[in-house]
Design brief:
With 428 residues, the protein is of the alpha+beta class. The protein folds into five domains: 36 residues; 94 residues, conserved putative lor/sdh protein from methanococcus maripaludis s2 fold; 96 residues, Efflux pump adaptor protein, beta barrel domain (Elongation Factor Tu (Ef-tu), domain 3, Beta Barrel); 46 residues, no CATH class; 122 residues. A six-stranded mixed beta sheet has the order 1-24-20-19-23-2, with no helix packed on it. The longest helix has 61 residues. The protein starts with a helix and ends with a strand. The N terminus is likely disordered.
Amino acid sequence: MDRIIEKTKSQKLKKYWPYMAGGAFLLLIVCWLVFGNHASTLKVNADDLTMSDVTRAEFKDYVRTNGQVLPIQVVQISPEEGGIVMEKVVEEGSHVKKGDVIVRLSNSNLDLQILNAEAELAEKQNLLRNTQVAMQQDRLNNQTEQAQLDMDTQRKQRTFEQNKRLYQEKLISREDYIQSQEDYQLAAKKRSLVSKRLKQDSIYRTVQMDQMEDNLDNMRKNVVLVRQRKDKLEVRSAIDGELGLLDVELGQSIQPGQKIGQLNDLSDYKVQAQIDEHYIDRVRQGLTATFTRGDKQYQLLVRKVYPEVREGKFRCDFSFKGERQRVGERSSGMRPENIRTGQTYYIDLELGQPEQAILIPRGTFFQTTGGQWIFVLDKSGSKAYRRNIRIGRQNPQYYEVLEGLEPGERVVTSGYEAFKDNEVLVIR
C-alpha cells in the first residue's frame, strides 16, 4: 500500500517539470536582460591598431605650419592710360629704380585729343586778343564821347551864366534866358546819364574779360593735363625693387587700370603661412614663432592676420624678429643669409605658455570621433571599450585631455573607420 502512494507523487512532479523548465528559462532571459553586456563587439587584429599611453606631461601650446618667404611689399603695375604696347623696356627679374620706364604705350586717340586741345586753345587766345582790341577801341570811343559831353556841358553852362547876367541887366529877353538855362540843364543831365552808362559798360566788359581769362586759363590747364596723360603712356616703376612679373606682349591693347605685372620690394622680407581655421580665434598680432635653417634657429613675429577663411585655412604674415640690422635705408630683424623669395620653412607658432596636462598622442581616430570619444583598453589589453572624453588644446604631437581619461591608461589612436558603431573591440 505504501509503495503505491510514492509512485503517485513522482508522477505528479513529472507533470510540472515543463512548467518549471519554462520558468527557469524565462528567469535566465530576464537576468541576461538586466545584468548582461549588450554592447556590440568587433574582433580586430592587434597589428592593425596603434595603441598609446595616456600620460601627464608638459603641454607645449604651439601649431606647426608651412611658411613661404615673400617680399615685404608687392606693388601692382597698372597703367593710368590705355594704349598699345610699343616697347618692353625691362624684362622680368630685372632690378629697377623708382621712376624707371618699364613699358611704353602708344595712343593715337590721345594724340588727336592733344592736337584738338591745342587748336582750341589757340583759337580762344586769338578771340581774347581780338576782344581786347575791340574793348580798347570802345574805351577810346567812350572817352571821346565823354569829353565831348563835358565840353558841351561847359559851353552851355557859360552861356547860361552869361545870359543870366544879361537878363538881370535887362539886356536880353526872359525867353532867351530860360532857353539857355534849359539847354544847360539838359546837357548836364545827358552827361550824367552817359557817364552812368559808360561806367556800367566798363564793369560789364571787365567781367566779360575776366570770364574769358578764366576760360582761357582752364583751357591751358586742360592742355597741360592732356600732355601729362601722354607722359603716362610710359609706365614707370613706383618703387625700387625687382620686376617679378610682366604679363604684356608687343602690340597688345592695354586698358587703364589693367594689371600687367608686379614689383617686389626686396628691402625686407616676410613669411606667409596658411593656418588651420581651428586656430583663427587664438592667432593674433604679436605672437612669436620659430623656424630652423641649418643648425640655427630664427625668430618670427606675427605681423598681420587675415580674417578671411578659404578651404579651411586662413593667412598669416610673419616678420623677422631678433637683433636688428640695417638693410638699405630700413632696419630689419635677423634673418638667414641669402634668403630668397619662394623659399619655404616649417614654422612653430607659439600660442601659449607650456603647462602640465593629461596628454594622448595625435592620431587619425580624431577624424571619426572629433575628439568626443575614444576606445580605452582594459587592464588585460584584450578588449577596448568606447568612452566619452573631452579634448582641449592640440599641438602637432599631442591632444590635451580635459575629461574622461587618467594617466596610465591605454587608448587606441589609429583610425576608426572600420569599427562602425561597435562599442567593444576584442583584440586578438
